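Researcher: Re-running this chain for the archive, since the previous output was lost when a drive failed. Same request as before.
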Amino acid sequence: MRVTVLGAGFAGLAAAIALQEKRHQVTLLERRGVLGGRATSYRDSPSGEDVDNGSHLMVGAYKDTLDLIRSAGGQDLLLEQEDLRIDYVEDAGPTSLRCPPLPAPFHLLAGLLSLRLPWSVRFQALRLGLAVRFGAPPVDLTLAEYFRRTGQGPEARRLLWDPLAIAIVNEAPERAAAILFHRVYQEAFLASRKASRLVFLRCGWGQVAERLARYFESRGGRLHRRALVHALEIDGPRVSAVRFTQRAEEKSDIQAGRRAREERLVADAVVSAVPWHVLPGLLPEAFRSESPFAGLASLRSSPIVSVELWLDRVVVNHVLVGLRDSEVEWVFDKGRLFGREGVPQHLSFIVSAAYRSSPKPNAELLAAAVAALRRYFPAMAGATVTRSLVMREPEATFSASPETESLRPAAVTPVDGLLLAGDWTATGLPATIEGAVRSGRAAARVLAG
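Model: Regenerated C-alpha cells:
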C-alpha cells in the first residue's frame, strides 16, 4: 500500500515507522528542515549544546514512546531513574519526594513521608489517591472541581497538585479536564513502581527525532523535508493524492537558490499528523464543515515558555528541581543531562500554561528566572549569567478543557483512507509525546488491518 504521512513530529514518525515495518511503501512529508514538530531542538552555536523548544519530560509509563526510541536503537539517549525522585526547593529550603523500591502505590505513600508537607496535606493526598483508584472517573469536570470534590485544600494544591498538574496537562486546573490528569495518575503512579520513575533525555528532542528518521529511512521509507503540503485530493469517498511544494532540501541547493517545484503524490492512504489548526486548510472546502473536521476550529491552544541560562558557576545541584511559588516552575540542568558537569552551567526553566508569561518581554522573563535562582539557591549570589535565550511556543499544546474532549477526533475519518494522528486526537491522554506516539501507532494499526 502507498501511504503518505503528513508531518514528522512524533505522531507522524511513529505512524511512518509502524507502517514501514509492515512493508508498506511510506513517504513522510515534513514542511520544515528540522524534525520533531512541537517537540524539537536546535544546536545553539555559541554553546554547542542542544536547546529544546520546551523541555518535555517522560515517565516510565510512556511505554509506546520508550519502545519506539529503543526500537530505533536510541537506548543510549535515555537517562532513567531507578526509583521516582522529584526535588523541590522553597523558602524553607530543599525537600524531595523520594520513593523507595516498593510496589505501587505503596512506593508513593512512602515517598510522601520524605517530602516536607503538613500532615493534613499528606492525608488529603491519600484521599485523592483513593479517589483515583476506586472512584468514578471525573468526566466533564475541571481539575479544580475534582480537587474540591476529593477534599484537596489550598495547601495541598499549592505544594503538590497544581505544579504537577499544570506540567502534565499544560493548562490551569480551573480550565483543565480532570479526566486527563486522572488517567495519567492511574498509569504513572498506580500501575507500577517503574511506571512512575522519571526518564530524561541525554540530548535534545530534535536528535531523538533524527534517530527515528534514520531508522525509518534504513527500512526503506522516504522522507522529504521542506515539503509544504497544501492540499489533499479526495475523489468521491476516498483520499487519492497529496499536492505539495517541494523546496530545496540540501544546504547546497538552498544556497544555490534552487527553485521550488510543485509535486503530486498518489496515495492509497494518508495519515495526517499535522496540528489541528492546519488540517482544515488541506481539505477540499466541502469537507471542512463536516464532522469531525468542523469541530477543530473550536480547539484552542495553550502556550509554553522556556528560558535558557548559562552561568559562570554551578548553582543548581540536581538535574530537575521544582520551584515552589515561583513564576518559573521547574528548572533542568541541561549540561548535566547532556553528560557535562561544571561550568558553564546550562539551566532551562519551564513555564507551562504560560498565558501571562508569554506576552512579557524577554528581559522580564529572564529577570524572573534569575530572581528565582537568587531566592532559592545561595550559590547564585556571586554568579553571572554569561548567555541567555527565551523560547516561546504559543501553540505548544491544545487547551485541554472538558469541552475539548468531545472535539478530539478519532483516528478514523469519514474519508476512506484518511487517518488522523497527533497528541490532539482522542488519545485519552493530555498533549504529551506519549499521546502523539500512541496516536500514530493507532492510525498505522487501522491501515494495517
